[in-house]
Amino acid sequence: MTNTTLAKAISTLIAGTALVCTSGSAAASTTMYNTFTTTAKSATDGWTRIADSNGDGYGTGPESKGNSGLILPWAGTTGNKLPFDYTGSSHLNWAVQLSGEGDTAQISGADSMARYGFDAEIDTGGGAWRDTGLDGNGNPTATGPTGWKHQTDIGLISSDVTQWVTINLTALSQLQSPTYSQFGVTVFEGMDTNTGDYVHHGSWNNASKPYTLDNPFGTTGLTNIGYSDNVDAVAGFTFLAQAGQIYTIYLGGVDFSRWNAGVDNYRMDITTALTAPVPLPAAAWLFGSAFAGLLGFSGRKKARLSA
Predict the structure, then answer these.
(1) What is the domain count for the chain?
(2) How far apart are CA 104 and CA 133, in angstroms?
């Protein structure tokens, strides 16, 4: 399929789709999805562009290097443009705009289908955030456990009001059995602003690229503000989202085989609160004294960022 044909097909699929609010909610979130899909589940998804640099008439994400070729439309954004005026080259899978106090959201293929009639590719590898440190033959690798860019999913979250945001993740056992249950999550303040060439091969979360590193994928504009390697449907990861600030979320499976094994669909449930959850997850304390100013911010909304 050519670049133009693909763009027309996707645009036809989501054309005229209005942003949908959750029924009965006074302050409903907006979820947004990349329409890029892969043919091999172990391949990197979330490319924002496709290009045909080898002249075979077939555009791919890696050929675009993240900064050239056709920009793919999104489901759930105004005019199907990239969310939050994103210009970075790194891959991007989804985005969420939280509208008000106590808002909730879900990122999943089921949510994208229900809202927009499009089944977004929401999956990640069982060892994407950190693998077991074993090669394909089960032998220990020289570098030990490590994370991988290939299957790490990337999303954006912004809130209209300052509030605590909690992320829970569930593997859906739709693509792999047995599947993993434990996820790793890293939160960065800001979003990628690097428009240079992007390569989806590479490792992170290891000795040479520690867990606390800013911009681990060769990006710019990302400040690491916290992480956890123990997130699931029950154990959440909580951070304080300042009103109007955009946060980038990196996520993937933990300690389940290698980056390209155990690829499975997942669901992300997002809940919010004006007061810190009790008991507060230890990782949340990485966010410093921001809670002290929470009451001063809670009643003041900033202008909503355009989706």
Answers:
(1) 1
(2) 36
